[in-house]
UniProtKB/TrEMBL annotation:
Keywords: Endoplasmic reticulum, Heme, Iron, Membrane, Metal-binding, Microsome, Monooxygenase, Oxidoreductase, Transmembrane, Transmembrane helix. Heme binds at residue 457. Pfam families: p450 (PF00067). This is Cytochrome P450 4A11-like. The keyword Endoplasmic reticulum applies. One of its GO terms (cellular component) is endoplasmic reticulum membrane. It comes from Octodon degus (Degu). The keyword Heme applies. InterPro entries: Cyt_P450 (IPR001128), Cyt_P450_CS (IPR017972), Cyt_P450_E_grp-I (IPR002401), Cyt_P450_sf (IPR036396), Cytochrome_P450_Monoox (IPR050196). Belongs to the cytochrome P450 family. Its cofactor is heme. GO terms for biological process: arachidonate metabolic process; icosanoid biosynthetic process; kidney development; lauric acid metabolic process; linoleic acid metabolic process.
């Protein structure tokens, strides 16, 4: 080989050739990807031809149809135009079939389809793979392990804990209303439900409602709610790396850090307490264990304890769901009663006749408030705490009207739209507690505030108990009035929130 053949002057040509080859390969890969996306879109269009929907853009989907924070209203409008279900195109190759018919809901909730991966995986950096995100046999094992935490023998003593937490909140409100201005209640209700869940499920006895760290946790949860909801609908934020570089991604990471610090501290404190032999003796004497103790002493099918990762995932999941959904239900129920004074007064009279001055509430009395319970359920119909759940079809499905969907389609069960569907609920925007009178009839899947089927909310009885305690004690102490200048505007998030807060005027009863 000659020296000239190895001279540096030969490299530019070689590099140029390599760049040309790389460019050609890149173009071929892009072309291949474009063909794949085109073919997938054509498959989707064919699969959904039985389900009409408003015209959509080939790239932006139905984005032009959905103004910021107007999603709920738009879906309710679609329910009037398109029977039972309607495709919603998020972008060119991403579509979900929105369901809002009870027969359709019954079919899907009676199956074992997994949670929609493309949506729920975005929650995993925050709450990990706990009961909400798990699927299949692992989900079943965790559900079976945790079910004893909601046995009625466990829930009974929680009532007294809830009463104390609610009274702390009401005492704070009593001091604040002396300023004679409307009070935003969602924040303080969230602190109260967090205080309650910390004491009931996590054996944490400190004053959460006065703790600055708890305020930070509540704020972090609110941020994570909004950021995750926004990310699901943004085509450019689906990739984890790209999202991590965005401003929203950085906020999400910081909020996750705050949330995890909170739950890590709860786990650490309980583990420390269990080092005490006296505490261990108490645990051994218990017939049923609290939520966190079940996790700490759990043995899976293979005989192993939960890993630290799995443990924190379940704590993060229940810490979030156990306080935020209940706070939503309580806040919207109090607003509904404030907006309908005639029903508020009937509830108050029922509670007064049962509880007197409210010095105590027993487990048995929770089932002796029929009218108050009707009012709570009607509020949960109008304002379901979880407005939507999603599934990926693991096999084809045929609905009662004969229409079908293939395996691989994502279905979105819009609980909010179902509850506002005029074909299911006559005059759906009217607050009418008589819909839930003992002799009233309705479809088994027309009312789903806690979802349904095998994956229904494991803590639904806990939540209903807390709703009844909070509503009863609040009505004994205050008259509730709406703020006419700030009518709450429901907005879709992971948990139903109000765009402009929930403001009430409170008048202390004599």
């Amino acid at each position: 080989m000659s020296i000239a053949a190895l001279s540096p002057t030969s490299f530019p040509g070689s590099i140029s050739g390599l760049l040309q080859v790389a460019s050609l390969l890149g173009l071929l890969l892009l072309l291949l990807k474009a063909v794949q996306l085109y073919l997938h879109r054509q498959w989707l269009l064919k699969a959904l031809q039985q389900f009409p929907c408003p015209p959509s853009h080939w790239f932006f989907g139905h984005k032009h149809e959905f103004q910021i924070d107007q999603e709920l209203e738009k879906l309710v409008k679609w329910a009037k135009e398109f029977p039972s279900a309607c495709p919603r195109w998020l972008w060119g190759t991403k579509v979900v079939i929105v369901l809002y018919d009870p027969d359709y809901m019954k079919v899907i909730l009676g199956r074992s389809d997994p949670k929609a991966h493309s949506t729920y995986r975005l929650l995993s950096p925050w709450i990990g793979y706990g009961l909400l995100l798990l699927n299949g046999q692992t989900w079943f094992q965790h559900r079976r392990t945790l079910t004893p935490a909601f046995h009625y023998d466990i829930l009974k003593p929680y009532v007294a804990v809830m009463v104390n937490s609610v009274r702390v909140m009401l005492d704070k409100w009593e001091q604040l209303i002396s300023q004679d201005s409307p009070l935003e209640i969602f924040q303080s209700v969230s602190l109260m439900t967090l205080d309650s869940i910390m004491k009931c499920a996590f054996s944490h006895q400190s004053g959460t409602q006065f703790d600055k760290n708890s305020h930070s946790y509540i704020q972090a949860i609110g941020d994570l709610n909004s950021l995750t909801f926004t990310r699901v609908r943004n085509i450019f934020h689906q990739n984890d790396t790209i999202y991590s570089l965005s401003s929203n991604g950085r906020l999400f990471k910081q909020a996750c850090k705050l949330a995890h610090e909170h739950t890590d501290q709860v786990i650490k404190q309980r583990k420390s307490q269990l080092q005490d032999e006296n505490e261990l003796e108490k645990i051994k004497r218990k017939r049923h264990l609290d939520f966190l103790d079940i996790l700490l002493f759990a043995r899976m099918a293979d005989g192993k304890s939960l890993s630290n990762k799995d443990l924190r995932a379940e704590v993060d999941t229940f810490m979030f769901e156990g306080h935020d959904t209940t706070a939503s239900g309580i806040s919207w129920t109090l607003y509904a009663l404030a907006a309908h004074p005639e029903h508020q007064q009937k509830c108050r009279e029922e509670v007064q006749s049962l509880l007197g001055d409210g010095s105590s509430i027993t487990w048995e009395q929770l089932d002796q408030m029929p009218y108050t319970t009707m009012c709570i359920k009607e509020a949960l119909r109008l304002y379901p705490p979880v407005p939507n759940v999603s599934r990926d079809l693991s096999k084809p499905v045929t609905f009662p009207d004969g229409r079908s969907l293939p395996k691989g389609i994502t279905v979105s069960l819009s609980i909010y739209t179902l509850h506002h569907n005029p074909k299911v609920w006559p005059n759906p925007e009217v607050y009418d507690p008589s819909r839930f009178a003992p002799d009233a009839t309705r479809h088994s899947h027309a009312f789903l505030p806690f979802s349904g089927g095998s994956r229904n909310c494991i803590g639904k009885q806990f939540a209903m108990n807390e709703l009844k305690v909070a509503v009863a004690l609040t009505l004994l102490r205050f008259e509730l009035l709406p703020d006419p200048m700030r009518i709450p505007q429901p907005v879709a998030r992971l948990v139903l929130k109000s765009k402009n807060g929930i403001y009430l005027r409170l008048r202390k009863l004599k």
